[in-house]
Amino acid sequence: MLHSSGFIVVEGLEGAGKSTVIDAIRDFLSKKGQVVVCTREPGGTPMAEAIRECVKHPWAEEEVTQETELLLMYAARSQLVQNVIKPALASNYYVVGDRHDLSSLAYQGGGRRVELTKLHQLRQLTLGDFVPDFTLYLDIDPSLGLERARGRGELDRIEMAGLDFFKRARQVYINTIRSMPNAIQIDASQSVGEVKKDVLSALDNWYQNRSL
Length: 212
Ligand code: Z5A
What we know:
Helices cover 56% and strands 13% of the residues. With 212 residues, it is of the alpha/beta class. It has one domain: Rossmann fold, CATH 3.40.50.300. The chain has a five-stranded parallel beta sheet, with helices on both faces. Helix 3 packs parallel to helix 5 (116-127). The longest helix is centred in the middle third of the chain and has 25 residues, at 66-90. It is globular. The relative contact order is 0.20. The structure holds ligand Z5A. Pfam families: Thymidylate_kin. Phosphorylation of dTMP to form dTDP in both de novo and salvage pathways of dTTP synthesis.
């Protein structure tokens, strides 16, 4: 049985269909005989899940500063990378991440307009040169994505940020993905079946080239 390892990340705005697509990616890799660990950010360890609750909470009685939000994202990421992702990769497993560092660039950098130097410093401190092996970005107009997300119930603190916030985040995603090696943009406004088909085709292509 072939065993290698790889860190695959699925990115996109809310309602883009990340959770839906991750199930298909896990099935694809399992059928290839790979062991797959799925993660989500913020979250994925007991402490990081507590941070997730904290960061999504509305905190109506006080303002959550940009810096606090950013630090919490990286605190959760540090816990996840050190305790789950790196050990899994060292065991020759595949890790499929529902969001990773690019989310901070899009949401805190683009959406909240945090200075890029601050983001880069935190990235360096937390991750060093650790990067995903393959990134799938599910691109969706924020109006459509939020409509899908709303269908699931109440919006959390970040989802309440307003349309312009998400438009800025989307623009950062699009610009960054273009310049990244091993990254692909998928049109997530299509039907679930079409999105899955595009994702699996891109994944198969990447996987075959990787296995050569
Ligand atoms: N955040 C941040 O600010 N900075 C960071 O560094 C990180 C995160 C890591 C995480 O919340 C929040 O944290 C997120 C970004 C921020 N906040 N916001 N806003 P989350 O994990 O709860 O939110 P999410 O990652 O955006 O998950 P999501 O809303 O569940 O989106 P999704 O996983 O992409 O979508 P889904 O669950 O697969 O689908 C949503 C619904 O749409 C569902 O009913 C599906 O059946 C439906 N769907 C999916 N695909 C389709 C298609 N193609 N057609 C029609 N309907 C569809």
